[in-house]
Write a structure and sequence with these properties.
single chain, about 180 residues, alpha+beta, two-stranded antiparallel ribbon, 12 strands, Uma2
Amino acid sequence: MTEPGLVYRWSVSEFVRAFEAGAFDHRVELIEGEIWPVVIGSWHGDTMVHLLGLLPRADVRITTATLPTGSSLPDPDCWVRRADAVPVGVVGTRLSVWSPADVLLVVEVSDETVLHDLNVKTRLYGSAGYPTYWVVTQERIFEHTEPTPLGYRRRVEYGIGDHIPVAYASRELPVADLI
C-alpha cells in the first residue's frame, strides 16, 4: 500500500523570496499555492508578439508583467491597465499590485495550457474582479466578462470569421487578425 504524499502549498511571500534568490531555473508562476511552469512554444510566442502589436494603446499600458492576484502570482501573457493607474501595493521588491478597477483586460495565449486557462485561471481572474479575460487558442478566442467570486458569469467564443469587442477601447478587432 502506498501512502499519499504531502502536498505543499507555497505562500506568496515564500515564492517571492525563492524567486528573488534565484531558486528557479526556468519561468514559473504561483497559482493557488502551486508552482506551475510557464510553457512558451513557437505558435505561442508568434501569436503573443502579433497580438501585442494589434491591441489598442490609447490611454492604456500593455504589459507582460506578473499580475499579483489574491494568493497567486500568475504570469498572464499580457494585460492592459489604465495609463494613469498607480500601484496599490507591492509584493517583494519588484512586483506591483494593481486595483482590479485599473486592470482592463487579461490575456492568456493558450496552447498546452488551455484547460488550466479555461478553468483555474478563469476562477482566479474572475474572483479578482478583472472585467475581461481572454483565452486565445489556435482556433478561437474565449472572452470572459462579468466577474464573480467564482469566476465569470459570461463566456463567449469568437471564431475566425468573428470580431471580438475590445471594451476598454470601444472597438472590435477581427479574430483572424489576432490568431
